[in-house]
């Protein structure tokens, strides 16, 4: 089995949802395979590009807030007839906000929902 550190360094490479990471200056520093398939048109490389260029003004304000104050932002969208869950969160290094990570995952049209407050486990 491969070295666990190497495995952890590449955990997001092949998951079935998009993972995009930006630094505190909003430069995109990582895109997993699904993120590149989702957001890169005609083979363009977005690594090093500004995350703000990919978002409308109201979303830019939310990103600025997350980078200044920490926290997360979660919402759903419909794009090209597909429902997605978007989760944006600041990430930290040594306790300081270092950037933003965004995950985007397709929601199945018949997604189940379980109310754990009402279920006995």
What features would you describe in this structure?
The chain has 121 residues and is an alpha+beta fold. Helix content is 21%, strand content 34%. It has 3 helices and 5 strands, in the order H-E-E-H-H-E-E-E. The radius of gyration is 16 Å and the shape is globular.
**Strand ordering within the main sheet:** 2-1-5-4-3
Q: Main beta sheet: strand number and arrangement?
A: 5 strands, antiparallel
- How many beta strands in the DSSP annotation? 5
Structural class: alpha+beta
Order of helices and strands: HEEHHEEE
Spatial extent as radius of gyration = 16 Å
Tally of alpha and pi helices: 3
How far apart, in Å, are the first and last alpha carbons? 35 Å
Average predicted confidence as pLDDT: 92
How much of the polypeptide forms β-strand, as a percent range? 25-35%
Shape: globular
Helicity range: 10-25%
Unreliable parts:
none
